[in-house]
Amino acid sequence: MNARQLEIFRAIMRDGSITAAANSLGISQPAVSKLLHHMESQLGYALFDRIGGRLVPTMEANLLFADADRVFREMEALKSLARDVGAQKIGLLRLGASLPVTYSVLPKALSAFRERQPEVKVHLHALPKREIAEALLLGDIDLAVTLSLIQAPTVRSEVLCEVPIVAVMRIDEPLAERAEIRPADLDGKTLISYGAHAEIGASMDGAFAAAGRQRDVAIQIASSVGAVPLVREGLGIALVDGLVAWEDFEGLVARPFLPRISMQAVAATNEARPASRFVQPFLTCLRTVLNGQRLR
């Protein structure tokens, strides 16, 4: 039973006659009769008995109708979905984001995006940069948002903004009274930060060396949000990105670090893979949030 035959069978069962079915489908009565006869020939049994000029469904027809009606409704739903996808009303956006991005600007950007595209499903992968880069190259995500460039021949990157390094500390830390923090201020303090191997590591080491100090990282972290429980516990002061809204974490404050050292918020797509039509609308929302967020 093909889709057209299914439609004819359902219409006859619903409307009770070939004439009524033809009218509801907008085709001729002979065409409906011909299609019904062909369908019965293919099945090898009658679907309707002709009694007193009326069509009476056979037992076989009644057995088929419930599932036939369900299948028809599912086909109609699929057609509607296909139309909505074509009209950009519904779809899928797969995002890969580093943890600092996920814990800062991403929720607001997604909120704005979903207000405009409420039917679009979003798959968010909060991952380390190395895994985000791999997912982007494999085509598992449509857009990557990280705090450094993803270097690959097919990757196209856009620098969204500069993200300065800040010093995050407990509110009861004496240095919290200062408007800014310099390398010399951290003498004798336990330092929580990225390792020397990190992309920002060399710049941070250079800033300390220029001040005649050595950046001695006592607790090394891979992502800035990992510093939250450590600083809260009083384990040290963290030198991390300023993208995260650190004051939103109770008991913590952030102060600008000088000399100014910056990371970059970067959006990346893979030109070797088909692009989701929702990447650019989402990036518009993300840029708006970043432009409205004051970064020290």
From TrEMBL:
Residues 1-58 form the HTH lysR-type domain. Gene3D superfamilies: 3.40.190.290, Winged helix-like DNA-binding domain superfamily/Winged helix DNA-binding domain (1.10.10.10). InterPro entries: LysR_HTH_N, LysR_subst-bd, WH-like_DNA-bd_sf, WH_DNA-bd_sf. Keywords: Activator, DNA-binding, Transcription, Transcription regulation. One of its GO terms (biological process) is positive regulation of gene expression. GO terms for molecular function: DNA-binding transcription factor activity; sequence-specific DNA binding. SUPFAM superfamilies: Periplasmic binding protein-like II, Winged helix' DNA-binding domain. Belongs to the LysR transcriptional regulatory family. This is LysR family transcriptional regulator.
